[in-house]
Amino acid sequence: DTAVSQTPKYLVTQMGNDKSIKCEQNLGHDTMYWYKQDSKKFLKIMFSYNNKELIINETVPNRFSPKSPDKAHLNLHINSLELGDSAVYFCASSQVPGSTEAFFGQGTRLTVV
Amino acid sequence: GEDVEQSLFLSVREGDSSVINCTYTDSSSTYLYWYKQEPGAGLQLLTYIFSNMDMKQDQRLTVLLNKKDKHLSLRIADTQTGDSAIYFCAEKLEGGSYIPTFGRGTSLIVHP
User: Fold this and answer.
1) What is the pLDDT at residue A57?
2) Does position B107 have pLDDT exceeding 90, yes or no?
3) B106 in helix, strand or coil?
4) CB distance B32 to B51 below 8 Å
5) pLDDT tens figures, B71-103
6) For residue B34, what is the nearest residue in chain A, using CA coordinates?
C-alpha cells in the first residue's frame, strides 16, 4: 500500500489551461504539504494544511489553490498555467505539524508547453 | 546565498566510501536531515540528527555534525550501485516555521 499517493504522475498541458493534482495519504496523519521542485532540484514548501485547515502559505501566486476535503486528501488546483509552473510537485504528510519525519509522494511532473 | 548548500555531484567507485557534505547558515537548527530521492520517486528520510549530537551511526550510514562550522556530512560505507540517487540535506529551525529547509541535493553516481 502506498502511503502518500499522487495523481497523475505526469502532466503535460498548454499554457493558459487549468489543471489539478490530487494527493491522498493513508497514514492517518493530520498534516499535509505541497512542495515544488524546480529544474535545479530546489525544493520549496508551498502550502501546509493541518486537519483540513491552511496553516502555511508561502509566497505562491494565487493561481495556485489548495483544497483539503478531509485530512487524508490535499489537492492542488492551478489556474492559467504558465511556462514557469513546469516543475515536479511533491505532496507530503506528517503526523502533526513539526513532526520529525515527513513522508513524500512520488511527485507529479508538470510540463507546461 | 542559500540557507542550505550542497555540492551538486559526487562520483564514486562501487565499494568505496562516499561523503556528501552540507553547510547551513542558521545556528538555531534543531534537527538536520538527510533525505534520499531515487529516480522517479519521492524523498525518503534516510536519517536525522538532533543538533545537540555530534555523530549518529546507522549501519552503513554515518552522520557527522560540526555545529561550530555549521557543517553536516553523510558518509556511506561500501557504496553500492543501488545508492545512486540524489541526497538532500535539510534543516529545521527552532521556533518560527517548522517546515524543513532543503538544500538543492547532491547527485551521487556510483560506477563499477
Assistant:
1) 83
2) yes
3) strand
4) yes
5) 999 999 999 999 999 999 998 876 656 678 888
6) A101
The minimum CA-CA distance between B3 and chain A, rounded to whole Å, is 12
What does R_g of chain A's alpha carbons equal in angstroms? Answer: 13
Average pLDDT, chain A: 91
C-alpha cell of B91? Answer: 534543516
| CB pair distance less than 8 Å for B43 and A90 | yes
Residues of A in contact with B104 (CB under 8 A): 40-43
Q: For B25-45, write each residue's pLDDT tens digit.
A: 877 778 899 999 998 888 899
Q: Mean pLDDT throughout A20-38? A: 94
Query: From residue A77, how far is each of A1, A65, A89, A93, B47 by CA, in Å?
Result: 25, 5, 12, 18, 33
- For β-strands B106-111 and B85-93, DSSP reports them as antiparallel
Cβ neighbours of A40 in B, within 8 Å? 104
Amino acid B2: pLDDT: 64
Q: DSSP characters for B16-57?
A: S-EEEEEEE--TTEEEEEEEEE-TTS-EEEEEEEETT-SEEE
